[in-house]
Amino acid sequence: MFNTIMVPTDGSEYSKKAEDTALSLAKKLGSNVVAVHIIDEKLIYPYEVLEEEGKAILQEVQKKGKEMDVEVLEILIVGNPTHDMAKITEKSGADLVVISTHGKTGLEKLIMGSVAENALKKVPVPVLLVK
What distance in Å separates the CA atoms of residue 119 and residue 28, rounded to the nearest whole number? Predict the structure, then answer.
């Protein structure tokens, strides 16, 4: 049914729930997982620090995948999370996206928008929202 499940993650507790859901689903379906971390190009912060954080987040997903015997491909890019999600979905061959419904809150969400909401609009495959 779903061969490749993509899970965008920012390392938040909400994203970790989405990671766990994607990995559990992949285990049951015999699918592989594409874990994606997008460093927001709008952030004014040393890139090296953000890259190291992103790598650590993806390595944690990789570790959980190995423990569950699920193959995990890691993708780390600098870009716009709301715009690049659809491109990554297509390039990775993902046929399902599992994403958390929370991450940014308050003013940050108002200014930047909801990544999950934009994923629903732009991603060309089914999207499973995890609360």
Answer: 24
Q: What does pTM read for this prediction? A: 0.89
Residues 6+ positions from 46 with CB-CB distance below 8 Å = none
Per-residue pLDDT reduced to its tens digit, 93-125: 999 999 988 755 555 554 444 777 777 788 999
Can you say whether the dihedral through the CA atoms of 123, 67, 27, 70 is positive or negative? positive
Which residue segments constitute the domains of the chain, with CATH numbers given? 4-130 (3.40.50.620)
**Cα separations in angstroms, 96 against 22, 51, 88, 120:** 9, 26, 12, 11
Dist CA 94 CA 3 (whole Å): 7
What is the rounded CA–CA span in Å between residue 98 and residue 95? 10
Which residues on adjacent β-strands are paired with residue 18? none
